[in-house]
Amino acid sequence: MKKVFSLLSITCTVFVFSQEKKNDSVGKLLEKEIQEIEITARRKLVERKIDRLVFNVENSTAASGGDAMDALRVTPGVKVINEKISIIGKSGISVMIDDRLMQLSGDDLANLLKTIPSDQIKNIEVITTPPAKYDAQGNGGLINIVLKKAKKNSWNATVRSSYRQSTYPTGNMGADFSFQKNKVSIFSSINTGNGAKKNIDNNSFYYPEEKWENESPRKVENKFLTARLGLDYELTNKLSVGFQYLGSFSEMNIKENNTASYIYDTQDDLKSYIISKAKSNEKPNLNQFNFHTIYKLDSLGKKISFDVDYFSLRDKNTRNYNGNSWNNNNVPQSYFAAINNNNQDITNYSGKVDVELPLEWAKLTFGGKVTQSKTNNNVIFYDNSSGTPVLDVNQTNEFDFTENTQALYFSANRKFNEQWEANVGLRAENTQTKGYSKDLDQENNNTYFQFFPTAYLAYTPNDKHSFNVTYSRRINRPNYSQLNPFRIYDNPYSYTEGNPFLKPSYTSNFEFIYTYDNLESKIYYSYEKNGFEQLGILDSNTKITRYFVLNFLKTYNIGLTENISFNPVKFWTTTNTFDINYTKSTSDTPVTLGSLNGWNTYLSTDNEFSLNSQKTLSFNVGYWISFPGVSGVDKVSTNQSLYAGLKFLMLDKKLQLSIIANDILKTQKPVYTSYSNGIKSTYRNYYDTQFFTISLSYKFGNQKLKVSKHNFGNQEEKNRTGK
After folding, report:
1. From the centroid of its chain, how far is CA 78?
2. pLDDT of residue 719
3. pLDDT grade, residue 711 (50/70/90)?
4. Measured distance CA(166)–CA(66) in Å, rounded
5. Which of 207, 314, 501, 670 has a beta carbon 3.0–4.6 Å from 639's, enabling a disulfide?
6. Which sequence spans correspond to the domains of the chain?
7. What pTM was computed for the model?
8. How far apart are the first and last CA of the chain?
9. Burial label, 541 (beta-carbon count in 10 A; 0-12, 13-18, 19+)
10. Is beta strand 121-127 parallel, antiparallel or unpaired with respect to 142-147?
11. What is the DSSP code (8-state) at residue 706?
12. pLDDT reported for residue 73
């Protein structure tokens, strides 16, 4: 007899044996009846584990039908502002996919995440104090994107397409295929897209004798193709091997046709202005390979895994710009034109071993990793003001950078009883770097060895209450491009320059978390030293802005976060977050303010509505607001966003139609105010966050397919390429 209890998404089969005595004298039992009970239960939208918060993306309407960036926008505890990702109350986070670090930055990270359909994501883990097993990279913690797995002895396929309308349209198409039978698992995925977005950078510089108003609208055209292919094979019951390939090929064309700088006197009368245009072309091509083996020592969970990884990145970037300066009578004063090329070549090798030993008294994990990264940046500058490109050797440079890292880690987890659980870990990383500028004939070497401890203590007196105390120490290494000492010009009045003497920053994080039923209260404290970020250094004489990366910050942060998720009525799930924190930053460079402190407050609400009893029609609406506060040595204005979504499931839930609207009121426009050499500057940027998306996907095959996927072991080094 089979009984089915439909409570939604996790399935388990329980065999119940009804037994009676066969012989009272010997006490033998006879199996009389087997009942198979299939239970399907729905995971909560938000779950709390000992070291992380888990957001189940597959249960979210707002995240469906989009990409990984859309899913992160509605993840509790995460902020996405102008495509910059952060954890509430934290800075310097890293992003992982299936436990592999992907430390990309800015547009490069956003562009990669946009190639991952949100319907492939099972959940997103927000890890504010990561355990010792993970690389120590990421000052503020980690965001782990967990992709869906598949079941054995079946196959599955999905085809999908989407259309997004922001300022310009964007189209995406993709397909996935998975197969697993007996000892063989195969998985593959391909995604392609073509479209554009409009980014607008506005800034104002308040010099003593004049004010500069700069406007820089950009049309960013992007077409991409990404592909994944993997194979896993069980050689024996104990030994399995596999490989994975990831390829990413894209081309971006950036057009800046109306960049303008207006110069006003102290009476706000126009003195002169500069009009320029630019065209950039970038072609990053990435190929990455992974080979892995897993050896099971026994059937109780003891195992050893090995990973060998290689990736190469080839990136060609060409920027061509020209313009005129004019007086207030519209008479041209001067003409400028230049071509700025930057070719980048990065290779990385890594190997790692991980051991898991669940023992009677504790679960032990330990292992090690070695990596080597080599990068070559070749910056070539041509003066094109005469119409014929002339090489400028003073602004041309080739820069080589090599980094070697060796790491060991150990952790132990013990559950003393039903109420108490503890975890302690220690990671050691030893790093050697060498940077060499050929044209400057300048070599910079650096060696550092650091320990990164972690600790967790959990007390759970009953099902409704739990207490957690955590500690971790983290490191934030600069991206390779930030170490390149040469200049890349946007125009004659603005350039970016790397710093070969840049050092990592370090952060200590403490948290106390109390959970009562669906309410989570967290008190946190962090201290970052040797912090670095890019500064806009203004010169009041030349009016040139130099964007330069520098170690100059110490930041203290203490705060309180409240999260609550509950069902006011059966068909409505609401998840709400409130955060307030006090931040103090001190600077050791005279370029900026000596210190800045203040309060930051953040509120968000996300609401899921199931509109019919079959669970095939759902609606989502959410809103978040970040009130005026501080970030480093910058003051930040109010920033907010309203979003909504609809999801329709048809044809026995195989066909899904999703409609998403983001930043409906077009209010995601933060203003940053800072001081450089005593000169006030404001930045008002908008990155096309108001958009409408409609997507369609169809699943066929066996929906219970499960594929065991293995991921790359050198994602940290790949991510720091900035691609």
Report:
1. 10
2. 59
3. low
4. 14
5. 670
6. 46-720
7. 0.83
8. 56
9. exposed
10. antiparallel
11. B
12. 81
